[in-house]
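Hello forum,

I keep getting stuck at the same step: I have a sequence, I want structure tokens, and every attempt I make locally crashes halfway through. Rather than fight my setup again tonight, could one of you with a working pipeline run this one for me? It's a single chain of 143 residues.
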Amino acid sequence: MVCLIYMARRFSPNTPQVVTIREIAEIERLPEPYVAKILNKLRSAGIVSSYHGKQGGYTLARDPARITLKEVIEALEGSTFDVFCEPGVRDDIVCTHFRLCGVKLIWNRTKEILDQFYSTVTVEMMVRGQEPLKKDLVGTRGK
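Reply #2:
Ran it on my machine without issues. Output:
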């Protein structure tokens, strides 16, 4: 997420602000191969665009207000929440009770709730910081 937030802070709809893997790695103190791997996954998902050549690098493919946390998690992880007891989700976990299991319903509902929540959070909201994000997500309740 820090790579996207870094890019979002430099986003301009009219003039793409190209950033390099090296730049992000240095500023965020991350290994360059790790940043490259993240940006490649985000590019494959259409979240960032890449440019080749001397002035090459990466930009956000669209406005940060239109990129959801759910999209980012799915691009990087494949799923927001793995229901491990579902057949085919993970080969290393085999549950023999998946047809009669009451826990499966809880895990499926948990995934639905997380997906719904993550769909409401945008990269732009995360750029604005904790207080505005808190207000957007919980309103004025609890004050």
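The CA atoms of residues 28 and 77 lie 20 Å apart. If your local run keeps crashing, start a new thread with the error log.
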